[in-house]
Design a protein that fits this description.
Serine Threonine Protein Phosphatase 5, Tetratricopeptide repeat, 9 helices, 203 residues, mainly alpha, two-stranded antiparallel ribbon, 2 strands, 66% helix
């Protein structure tokens, strides 16, 4: 029965991949345009997910929107596949859809927490932050997870640096949100951050 399920699930993803990859070759594609076909290689390497163990899908002509659909099907069939989850988040970020990226990220974190895998969630977030250092939402989510795991002493410096970066960029509202997040964590020097918050608000 297990082998039958394994084959059926893998076949479903393969058929989806073939369907999406059957498109005309468009000359002069712009790789920065999400509406244009863009080369995507999908590797399923999560050996904790036996359904997809050793499965390899190579989609040479696939645009971001279509790739997203494939990864979403993989995630539905294998919710523990962190590679699929990571690619869904990254594709949404590339397509300027931060709200969808954050929703996927929060869903995965909740999924891990429901299995008492909070530390795995932190590792996943740290990898995302490393690969996308320019995304404040990822750093804020990592800081929130660290705080929840009792690691506030690591969360506060992360947010402190992020706040400084946002101020330098001229993103005052973003900096206010970050400093307020620190205040809510109630670190030992919370009064310093309350004063900073007051200054940022022009009070």
């Amino acid at each position: 029965m297990k082998n039958v399920f394994r084959f059926a699930a893998a076949a479903a993803v393969m058929m989806t991949a073939i369907l999406y990859s059957c498109q005309k070759d468009v000359a002069g594609n712009d790789a920065t345009n999400p509406d244009q076909p863009h080369p995507v290689t999908i590797y399923l390497t999560d050996h904790q997910t036996p359904v997809f163990d050793s499965v390899f899908i190579d989609l040479q002509r696939l645009d971001w929107k279509q790739a997203l659909r494939v990864y979403e099907q993989i995630r539905t069939l294998a919710p523990d596949d962190d590679s699929a989850r990571k690619n869904i988040i990254e594709l949404n970020l590339r397509m300027a859809q931060p709200d969808k990226a954050l929703s996927e990220l929060e869903n995965y974190i909740n999924h891990l927490e429901s299995q008492n895998k909070g530390e795995l969630a932190i590792t996943f977030l740290e990898e995302l932050v490393k690969d996308h250092d320019d995304q404040p939402l990822l750093k804020r989510t990592l800081a929130a997870q660290l705080h929840q795991m009792g690691r506030t002493s690591e969360a506060v410096p992360l947010l402190d640096v992020l706040g400084e970066i946002l101020v330098e960029r001229g993103d005052r509202e973003g900096a206010i949100d970050v400093i307020n997040q620190i205040v809510l964590m109630n670190p030992h020097n919370v009064e310093d951050y309350r004063q900073l918050l007051k200054q940022l608000r022009g009070g």
